[in-house]
Amino acid sequence: MRDFADLQDEYEFLDADDRYRLLIDLGRSLEDMPEPLKTDATLVRGCSASVWVYPTRRDDGTLHFLADSNAAITKGIIALVLTAVQGRRPADILATDIDAALAPFDLRNQLSSNRTQGIPNMIALIRATAERYAA
């Protein structure tokens, strides 16, 4: 997975079309999520596209998220969100202001509200997972 700061630097120099392409490429880079994990239990509510997130905890205590979407741009947004938290310890995720980390990408102004409406729910799910494992 790419470094979050490098992504931010690259993103700010791109025009709107290239930003879409970057998000689509990010989505393509997500680790494959096996179909049996795409269930009602892993479905993120409130997204216009179907979004599934399946968290696991690694032996070293870090969290790893498998995720997928049936929409390319949405899948890219998921990949961007996960870049901020993937492979980190629950306490580190809880200490991260994910909204603030995403702010420089200005997704709400770059993309339609349909595409961004599920972001708070994705973040809430990631935070809830981190809280559960931190306890």
From TrEMBL:
Q: Which InterPro entries would you find in this protein's record?
A: Fe-S_metab-assoc_dom
The Fe-S metabolism associated domain sits at 14-128
Superkingdom of this entry's organism? Bacteria
Short name of one Pfam family = SufE
Annotated Gene3D superfamilies = 3.90.1010.10
Report the sequence similarity comment from the record: Belongs to the SufE family.
Q: What is this protein called?
A: SufE family protein
